[in-house]
Amino acid sequence: xxxxxxxxxxxxxxxxxxxxxxxxxxxxxxxxxxxxxxxxxxxxxxxxxxxxxxxxxxxxxxxxxxxxxxxxxxxxxxxxxxxxxxxxxxxxxxxxxxxxxxx
Amino acid sequence: xxxxxxxxxxxxxxxxxxxxxxxxxxxxxxxxxxxxxxxxxxxxxxxxxxxxxxxxxxxxxxxxxxxxxxxxxxxxxxxxxxxxxxxxxxxxxxxxxxxxxxxxxxxxxxxxxxxxxxxxxxxxxxxxxxxxxxxxxxxxxxxxxxxxxxxxxxxxxxxxxxxxxxxxxxxxxxxxxxxxxxxxxxxxxxxxxxxxxxxxxxxxxxxxxxxxxxxxxxxxxxxxxxxxxxxxxxxxxxxxxxxxxxxxxxxxxxxxxxxxxxxxxxxxxxxxxxxxxxxxxxxxxxxxxxxxxxxxxxxxxxxxxxxxxxxxxxxxxxxxxxxxxxxxxxxxxxxxxxxxxxxxxxxxxxxxxxxxxxxxxxxxxxxxxxxxxxxxxxxxxxxxxxxxxxxxxxxxxxxxxxxxxxxxxxxxxxxxxxxxxxxxxxxxxxxxxxxxxxxxxxxxxxxxxxxxxxxxxxxxxxxxxxxxxxxxxx
Lengths: 103, 474
Known about the structure:
The complex is a heterodimer of chains A (103) and B (474).
Chain A: H1 3-6, E1 7-14, E2 19-26, H2 29-38, H3 43-50, E3 57-63, E4 68-74, H4 94-97
Antiparallel strand pairs in A: 1-2, 2-4, 3-4
Chain B: E1 4-8, H1 19-27, E2 32-36, H2 45-49, H3 56-73, E3 77-80, H4 88-104, E4 109-114, H5 120-129, E5 132-134, H6 143-148, E6 149-154, H7 158-166, E7 171-174, H8 181-189, H9 194-204, E8 220-224, E9 229-233, H10 242-250, E10 258-261, E11 264-267, E12 272-275, E13 281-284, E14 287-290, E15 294-314, H11 317-321, H12 323-337, E16 345-351, H13 361-366, E17 390-398, H14 401-416, E18 438-455, E19 465-469
Parallel strand pairs in B: 1-2, 2-3, 3-7, 4-7
Antiparallel strand pairs in B: 1-8, 4-19, 5-18, 6-15, 8-9, 9-13, 10-11, 11-14, 12-13, 15-17, 15-18, 16-17
Helix pairs in contact in B: 3-4, 7-8, 8-9, 12-14
């Protein structure tokens, strides 16, 4: 299924000028647990989706209180760099919306 | 232990709040009113240029309600990260607004101002001693970054604010501050748990953003007890739910379980969120773990040039098919025409393509030839693009504004009349929505310092100045 069918919130934002962080909050506890257990959201799959090196995926955290999976990556450029296209990093979530998860 | 009460009127000073919510908050008799004014989100420009990203009238409107109400009730108002970035010009800007309000409303109060600029020689010395480490993935600090920086600030902890409170300050305006401390300082001073106070501060710093539906321009209220805190919105249209409050803990953070700040980390591994009433959430278990040495976060930016941009668009299908070849050819023409100029940056930001490389362009610029993977947005074969329209921003950055104007202007006129293969529309390739077509944007900055520095005394670099305003005058 596509991630946007399983989640209420899919968002991206800077975490300081050198990191981008993505939050995926699932609709129910059951969906959250299934996706978390499936391992579909991994450093390898995230790196492939964004075409980045796997070592640039800094953390993948399962945050139970919010039924959320959080992924933080090295920002491709620092916020406001000459090559910037999204200063706040708030629109980098789009590829995640149609990401296919097997649950 | 009686509950300590904190009113957070708005997510960022100047974002505003409804009077009905404000009055609900004041009815609850807060012990302190606190507001965060800052963020690095809007990018490096504001710290570099010494300009606030919030509007003066909007900031004045919020403070002109908060300050007289607090003085009437005999409680302090604490404002963190003045002017958004918290450097000396931002602090001065906000200080003048407060003095203006005091004069206009004939207010008398003790006013503390706490700057957070760190002198370059202090940082250079700390760098030599090995007291500075990068906040990964920021690169190692170099002496030239310090030399080149326009402004360098550090995020202060609760200690300088407590110092001002002990001296009787009623209105406290700080330079760059760790967001939660303006909310937490008085509670910590009164003996409430630092972990709970800091976690509550983390939620209150964005006010009603942590409620549902969320809002950046509405109030939030917090209560701290001995081993818990509670948080609730003040508009009947909003509720705090365990989901909305827990979700906020994720916001803009690398790791929601471990939140580093001045002097230690906030550990949320054992935090429990409980729905207390329909709109109020109770939180317990958050712990503050002091670090062995006291560290503060430095933020600095440097000027990299001046920018001129031009907005344009095209709806021509022949041009859209070839847009990558055309922009490359225009770049080559600019380079050839100004072969004496080396030191400039010229880019075409193109929006509306099927492969979505406009918004997602930062990932394109990072792509290197060693990566062969093909992903959905990596379909950059221009012949396949059948988008109806493309928006094109011509972006020129050069050492002076005049040179940036020159590069932008020449790129714009070259693109306008470029004779690409198969061209049918020979009068002009671009639709400009504006006259003038080019906009001078002034100085451009980049982050160059985002590091932690070890210090001995949490108050040493944040001197507290106190002035007594009587009827608005010194």
